[in-house]
Structure formats: structure tokens, C-alpha cells
Design brief:
By secondary structure, this protein is an alpha/beta fold. It has 2 domains: 26-190 and 288-405, 3-Layer(aba) Sandwich (Rossmann fold); 200-276, no CATH class. It is built from 10 helices and 21 strands. It has helices at 26-30, 54-61, 101-118, 134-145, 196-202, 248-256, 308-318, 334-341, 353-365, 397-405; strands spanning 38-40, 47-51, 71-76, 84-87, 93-97, 119-129, 150-157, 173-180, 191-192, 205-206, 213-217, 220-222, 242-244, 260-262, 268-273, 280-281, 285-286, 298-299, 324-327, 345-350, 368-369. The strands form 6 sheets. Strands 1-2-20-19-3-6-8-7-17 form a 9-stranded mixed β-sheet. Strands 10-11-15-14 form a 4-stranded antiparallel β-sheet. The chain is globular. It starts with 25 loop residues before the first helix and ends with a helix. Mean pLDDT is 86; it is low at 373-406.
């Protein structure tokens, strides 16, 4: 495996940006008209839900001192430039995804600029897209948030294997871009649990004295050092082109504590014990967060609804209890529910009547098994007007508890 080492030669970094007709300057975007959106009464102190165009709504939020610069984490799942219309499980119109090309990019860019302004200095943003516009959007986000504040291009397995008839590989993934506003940001590293098989594979050795399971790792690292870590330890130099990871004094401490393994030919390696592991550090390929895929998955039935556990991972990693989370394309309210479940506050915004209905219903009643929706289209229902769900009964104490303390 090739190993990179720091280079003394630094190529000059030239700025780049996407150019297209209709691209407003940042200052002009922030000077666009603001409009106070309709706030939906959800009988809860957990958060706020707004109905309306998210751009003027967020420009209005800039005037709110408890919001501007106070949003700790943003997750958005915007339209994907599919040029399609989407319907809910009752075949009622939910929203249109009709923008494409430069129109789409500027639509999204303007909202990203305002979101950058609303974020706390140590805040994070996650943008969820598919292959249609993810690469162009990354260039936009490099421009707005700074290339140095890009952290991950996460790939998520979104569905089960498809039996494709087109002449290409099956498309079962989408992507999440992870940026922060600065280099100093809230971060709680997530871990997956060890399985017995994975533990035995990664930690195959048993310590003879303690019986503890461990693995052996090198005590050297790439790069030449001229100081103490480049000198001999126990009459051994580090391998060519490398240096000791620790000072010789620290290596002596590890050896005295029984944490150095000596191979038959006298090469040292460090023992890393399993019982000190917090779990398997999460990487940037996520396989366990598919969208609804069986009859027992809890859903609202809203189109393009995202996986609840996906959102809890993102929010838990980049916020602390009580922090403010924002989703300006809140759809069915997955981000809102996940924020409440983790003891965070939320702001949700959406222009679609169907999204407001789904979010309110979710906060009132939760989700139902996917199987409950089978055959629902065959049942005649009276359509609900969106204003029917604008106000929740404040006297419903069980609803209040469900929303504020889920």
C-alpha cells in the first residue's frame, strides 16, 4: 500500500468557481427580500415549524437574535434536479422537482449562502443529494464554506439491489456532503458495535499473562525525523524513511507495561487491547441506513422520506443536548423527530402543504409500519386542507409529551 508523506513543495492554489447566468453576488443574495413565514403551532417547546418558501423565511430568521449564528447543525435533503413531480402514498401531489442546470444550482446556492450565515461558528452542515448534482454542489460548497472546511463525501446505500435493464451498473447509492463553518467544530465520533466475528478478525491475539484480546500495530510512522524519534531505541533504528511514533521514553513505558510485542527476530510492535475500544469508528460508506425496504419499517408515507437512524447519527455527531438543528427542506419531518429524540431543538421549514401535513402528523402521532399503508390507495378519503393541521390541541398532554420528550 502506498504511503503519503508531507512534501516540502507546495503548488500554488488558484481559486475556482462555477460560472453561469444569473449568479448573484453573496451580498446581493443576503440583501434579497425577507418574509416572515407562517409558523405552525405544534404545542411544543421542542422546536418551530414554518410553512413557506425557505429562502425569504431564512432571510427573516437572520433578524432573529436567537437563531442567527446559533444553528449548530444543518441537514438538508433538497430536490435532486430530477425534473419530476412526486406524490404521497395516497397519490396526492406532494412537490415538484422541476429545476435543472444553472437554475437549480442558483436555487440551491442562494439557500446555502443564507444557511452559512445562520450557522454557529462551530456548526456543521450536511447536504444529501444523488449523482445528478452532487459534484456541481460540492464546488458550490467549496466556494461558500471553504474547501478547507470540507470533511466527507459520504456514500449511503439507499435501497436493495436493483434488477437493472439499462446498460449500466445498478444505482443503489446517494451521497451526503459534510462541511463545517470553521476548523473548530463540535464533533462526537460515532462508533459501530463489534460483532464477535469482527472482533476475532481484528483482534486475533490473546495476551499470555492477562488473557486479554489484542492486535499488533507498528510503532513507527512514515517520514524521516531528526529528533529523538529518529534515533535508535533498544539498539534499533526505525525502518528506512520512517520514525518512531513515540519518544524512546514513552516506548520504554509501554514495554514495561507489557504493551510491546517482540517478534522472534526482535522487531517491536505495539499491543492494542480490545477492551479499550469504544467500537468500530464509522467510516464514509454507510450501508445500514436504507430507505423503507420492508413491511416493518416505520414511515410516514411521504415521498423521498429519509431514514430516521441516518439523521440521529448526523445530529448526535455534530451537536450537544439543547443545541439548535435546522432543516429548511424538512419534508416528512425526519430531522425534526431525530432532533427531539436526542434532546435537541429544531427549526423546520417547507413550502409544500403535503410536507407540513406529514411533519405535523409525525409529531402528533409518530410513524407507522410500512405494511399499514398497503392498499391505502383503494380507500376513499376526504382530502385534508393544510390549515386543518396548522394548530394542534394544546390541551392534549400526551401529544405534548410525545413531541417534547420523545
Amino acid at each position: 500500500m502506498a504511503t503519503g508523506v508531507p512534501s516540502k513543495r507546495r503548488a500554488s492554489q488558484k481559486a475556482y468557481a462555477l460560472q453561469y447566468a444569473g449568479k448573484l453576488a453573496r451580498a446581493d443574495v443576503l440583501a434579497l427580500p425577507a418574509a416572515e413565514p407562517v409558523e405552525i403551532a405544534i404545542a411544543s417547546e421542542a422546536g418551530r415549524l414554518f410553512h413557506g418558501d425557505n429562502l425569504p423565511a431564512m432571510l427573516w430568521l437572520r433578524s432573529q437574535p436567537d437563531v442567527r449564528g446559533k444553528v449548530q447543525s444543518v441537514y438538508i435533503d433538497p430536490p435532486y434536479a430530477t425534473t419530476m413531480a412526486f406524490v404521497d402514498r395516497d397519490a396526492n401531489h406532494a412537490y415538484d422537482d422541476h429545476l435543472d442546470g444553472a437554475d437549480y444550482l442558483e436555487f440551491l446556492r442562494r439557500r446555502l449562502i443564507v444557511l452559512h450565515d445562520l450557522l454557529a461558528s462551530d456548526g456543521a452542515i450536511f447536504v444529501h443529494l444523488d449523482q445528478n448534482m452532487i459534484f456541481e454542489t460540492k464546488i458550490l460548497m467549496d466556494e461558500i464554506f471553504g474547501r478547507e472546511n470540507f470533511h466527507n463525501f459520504i456514500t449511503r446505500k439507499k435501497c436493495n439491489t436493483k434488477n437493472y435493464t439499462r446498460k449500466c451498473f445498478g444505482n443503489i447509492s446517494d451521497h451526503v456532503l459534510f462541511y463545517t463553518k470553521s476548523q473548530e467544530y463540535v464533533w462526537h465520533r460515532p462508533y459501530d458495535e463489534w460483532s464477535a466475528e469482527k472482533m476475532a478478525e481484528e483482534y486475533p491475539c490473546i495476551d499470555e499473562k492477562s488473557g486479554r484480546r489484542y492486535k499488533k500495530v507498528p510503532v513507527h510512522a512514515p517520514g524521516v525525523r531528526r529528533g529523538e524519534t529518529g534515533k535508535p531505541w533498544r539498539d534499533k533504528l526505525p525502518p528506512h524513511g520512517k520514525h518512531w511514533q513515540y519518544l524512546p521514553s514513552k516506548l520504554d513505558e509501554l514495554d514495561a507495561a507489557g504493551e510491546i510485542y517482540w517478534s522472534p527476530n526482535g522487531n517491536p510492535r505495539r499491543k492494542v487491547f480490545f477492551d479499550r475500544s469504544k467500537g468500530i469508528p464509522v467510516q464514509d460508506i454507510w450501508l445500514g441506513f436504507r430507505d423503507a425496504h420492508n413491511q416493518n419499517v416505520l414511515i410516514t408515507g411521504y415521498p423521498t422520506e429519509k431514514n430516521f437512524d441516518l439523521l440521529t447519527r448526523i445530529i448526535a455527531a455534530t451537536t450537544n443536548p439543547g443545541d439548535l438543528v435546522l432543516d429548511c427542506f424538512c419534508g416528512s419531518g425526519t430531522t425534526l423527530e431525530a432532533a427531539v429524540a436526542l434532546g435537541r431543538r429544531f427549526i423546520g421549514i417547507d413550502a409544500a402543504d403535503a410536507a407540513i401535513k406529514a411533519s405535523v402528523k409525525r409529531l402528533r402521532e409518530g410513524r407507522g409500519p410500512m405494511g399499514d399503508f398497503v392498499g391505502v390507495r383503494s380507500r376513499k378519503k376526504e382530502p385534508l386542507e393544510v390549515h386543518d393541521l396548522f394548530t394542534l390541541a394544546a390541551s392534549n398532554n400526551s401529544t405534548r409529551r410525545d413531541v417534547a420528550g420523545a
